[in-house]
């Protein structure tokens, strides 16, 4: 049986929708990025993925006032970062935050944003800039712009109107 003109072969099972990824650093500037990324994900009918990198570095010794039993484990650091990320997303999106996939990842922010974008097949990465007297982008934004597998949208910390 031949197919009607203009239709190709059956593509088979649908591949997962390419995500919109937002890098969150816990700052107030991230609020604008989360809001805009959520809007873009809605427009594109795509899942929203929020990523926050954290450092697993520990100090060499416990502070004098802190008992050794209270030192944090790597698991504690990951759970704190994930909780902070969920709180930031919830603060901006309210009930819609339940649909956002969150990734708290150990390592350098720029590198982890790019790696996560590759893993989730991101179609767009959204990042916030920090308030600075300089017109130059920060190192994370520069790294992501150079290495990203998709377009990158840089959002001002306090946009006039999105």
List keywords for this structure.
single chain; 162 residues; alpha/beta; five-stranded parallel beta sheet; 4 helices; 5 strands; 16% strand; globular
Describe what you observe in this structure.
It is a single chain. This protein has four helices and five strands. With 162 residues, it is α/β, with parallel strands linked by helices. A five-stranded parallel sheet has the order 3-2-1-4-5, with helices on both faces. α4 (139-147) links the parallel β4 (124-128) and β5. α1 (29-44) crosses α2 and α3 (109-119) packs parallel to α4. The longest helix has 20 residues, at 74-93.
Quick description:
The chain has 162 residues and is α/β, with parallel strands linked by helices. The chain has helices at residues 29-44, 74-93, 109-119, 139-147, and strands spanning 20-23, 48-54, 101-106, 124-128, 152-155. The termini are far apart.
Q: What's the number of extended β-strand segments? A: 5
Rg from Cα: 19 Å
Main β-sheet, in a few words?
A: 5 strands, parallel
Structural class: alpha/beta
Q: What are the low-pLDDT stretches, counting only 5+ consecutive residues below 50? A: 6-14
If you average the pLDDT, what whole number results? 82
Helicity level: 25-40%
Amount of beta strand: 15-25%
Number of helices: 4
Give the distance, in angstroms, between the N- and C-terminal Cα atoms: 51 Å
- Global shape: globular
Order of helices and strands: EHEHEHEHE
Q: Give the strand line-up of the largest sheet.
A: 3-2-1-4-5
